[in-house]
Amino acid sequence: MRNKRSPTYAVVIALTMALLGTACGDQTRDAVEEAMEEVAADAREKLYEEPISFSPKGVDGTAELMPNGDLLIDGKPVPLDDTQQEAALAYREKFLALAVAGILVGQQGAALGGEAAALALSAVFGGEDAEEAERKIEAEAKKIEKAAQALCRNARALEVEQERFAEIVPEFAPYAKEIDIDVDCEDADDD
What we know:
Layout: H1 6-23, H2 25-49, E1 52-54, E2 63-65, E3 71-73, E4 76-78, H3 82-125, H4 130-168
Antiparallel strand pairs: 1-2, 2-3, 3-4
Helix pairs in contact: 1-3, 2-3, 3-4
């Protein structure tokens, strides 16, 4: 025999959970954002403290670019003159700028997802204006778009610096990866 009240109870429980989620939305969102910032800060710190490793397909071995600009290939130091050391540091700086820009875009995207969910719940269960919620989400999305354009500019700068570094330090050339800048980056040129 089927219990006809089960679906009703499920709906009541789901609505109750959604309303509780809306009421706690700001606290939950703040906790999530704080955790995301902590993870991002840790990732940024590790990026600056650890070597950057390169081991592209089709190339035997690994190249590592150390925080001080030293270049190791298969664990052995490559002697660099002052100009080469400067190029190594400039390349590393551009590489890290791109990585940090990527982390920022990821953070903003995750925050937007949380914000969109909270605004949607508020609109549905809290009587908030759905159009206002949509405007807020669109405004946040514009911020992400600007951050993504910065990511594109950083990718282009890295591409130029990588070409320079591979030219000045031929030992690195086999480890240089092609940087495929997507069509989505075309808009970044307009800014």
